[in-house]
Sequence to fold (543 residues):
Amino acid sequence: MEALSFPFRKLPIFLSLSILLLLCNFPSAHCHDFLHCLSSGNHSTVSRVVVYTPSNPSYTPVLNSSLRNFRFTDPSTPKPLFIVTPTHESQIQAVIRCSVKLRLQIRTRSGGHDYEGVSSWATAPQPFIILDLVNMSHISINARKKTAWAQSGATIGQIYYKLSQISRTLAFPAGVCPTVGVGGHFSGGGYGTLLRKFGLAADNIIDARIITVDGKILDRKSMGEDLFWAIRGGGGASFGVITAWKLKLVTVPKIVTVFSVGRTIEENATKIFHKWQSVAPNFPKELLVPVAILQANSTTRPGKKTVMLIFNAVFLGRAANLVKLLSERLPELGLKRSDCREVSWIQSALFMSAYPIETPPAIFESRDPLLKFYFKGKSDYVQEPIPEHGLEGLWKLMLEDEAELAQVIPVPYGGRMAEISESALPFPHRAGNLYKFQHIVFWNEPGEEASKRHIDWMRRLYEYLTPYVSKSPRAGYINYRDLDLGVNDVQGNTSYAKASVWGLKYFNKNFRKLVEVKTRVDPTDFFRNEQSIPPFLSVKAAN
Ligand code: FDA
Fold:
């Protein structure tokens, strides 16, 4: 395994310890030791690394800047000793070396969208720091070779925007929300509107750079195929700090078609959705029709609530063909040509992320999310259509008060997803799944009481769905992290059996191989969190 030189920005500025101390405002003992360590050893010329301690006025704004789930902005949430925002791989090497030495845990954060916020907090009383890659977000595109390198701190929206500035037909099959960071997203799988045609983001990653616990910088060749396999779907936080990804870009038509059509349960939505369950996974690969199920005001019964199903679509083709296809396969939806818009692929990305189509795509450069909420999410996989009476029970739950801002989002599989083997990557949810179910409840009142009410509602919904979703294991998606599924031991000596409880749900038979890779790459479990892959227990925890 050899050290590699960094392909992106070269930072010529090297600053002395005194500048580090200045940035580490009123340093705590830990901070002082940390800065002293950074400036010593092989890193005598430590480049500028900004360290925010709690006494620094920027600490809280920086901490909360990319924390997407407000549940973890609460004062009771354990806070990091400090936040480090590197700009260069050599700084990450030094941060890892010093954290190992001082027995500090690292939480690596790229876009901060983790559903349970584990990139921003750690189970007390573990001393931890946040390594925030927000300043490592460079993207370079080779349009001729149809490849790109993206640093882990980039967002998927920034990639989409950069691509749109070069070509109307180059795209990348990643998620819908533009502010999601590629560090967490790609390492957990990552899916979006091109899922049925091209698979996951992780299926389209062809190289990566990772810094491991011993401070080595490895690429695909030097890390070897097993570790490269593990970081594409196994959750990056278990193996090291991934600094960059090489993407295989895909080609989409110049014109694609989108629509968004809502039907309430009074407008036959139950029957339409019942049929959707078996037809949407068998549409041509070029078509994805996800559904958002939510509470709405009834138009026919003033003052009453109803359930609305919004059928969205991105079709890699023209509107006339889409209308024809749906009139044959799902005529119950009643799709009309006037419901459809022909747009460019980047406009389809704006549309699906809830921006008006006319919005300048440069909005995707922003890291500010469209909405900021408290939320709790869960996920499921559906392998047999849910019968109508089962759907009616789900609608009842959706009409409860706590579901005012809830959404259940079925996303059809099939197409390319069914062609990739379950073991090709750690992400095992391939053939045999009709659709993935995302369940998410948002609320905007602070405090424990509101939190408890909404989380209880989510747990009841999950319980209700038990007979209708995958079993043995009841599968889930790691990128929709759910700590209800089980957590590791705080001190890092989690047994294989204990971690299997959540690990089999996310990774099924691939879990064991992930544990084997972890045991080789990080045997002392330095890189760990509440749901990281543990090594086999024969190895003693690092701190
Ligand atoms: P964050 O920085 O919180 O990291 C998540 C996890 O990855 C943490 O464990 C973190 O330590 C680790 N990690 C991050 N960077 C790392 C690095 N460089 N090296 C090693 N480990 C690293 N998913 C999807 O597939 N399709 C979608 O459309 C969406 N949409 C969506 C919308 C919204 C509003 C949210 C909040 C989330 C999604 N997601 C999603 C889920 C998303 O893919 C998931 O939360 C990702 O892990 C987020 O990656 P971030 O880098 O933003 O998170």
